[in-house]
Amino acid sequence: xxxxxxxxxxxxxxxxxxxxxxxxxxxxxxxxxxxxxxxxxxxxxxxxxxxxxxxxxxxxxxxxxxxxxxxxxxxxxxxxxxxxxxxxxxxxxxx
Length: 95
Prior knowledge:
The protein is mainly α. The protein is built from 3 helices and no strands. The chain has helices spanning 16-42, 45-68, 72-94. It is elongated and about 45 Å long.
């Protein structure tokens, strides 16, 4: 992540730990998003649901971290994205 300060609550200083977390998050999120988009593009519906489920669970985990850190934006945004991913996984699985 080039600007990890954009994801932090106002007044929190970026340090080495912040950069490590941002890079670790990017190392997970970017490949997961790329695989999900590639599956959509290829039209391979049988594998989309499990990948969306994994992405959703990762987002729910991020939401829990946001709650723990009292970072309202992270908690709400990641939680909503987690629900969206899991609902999408369910939809792809049932249709």
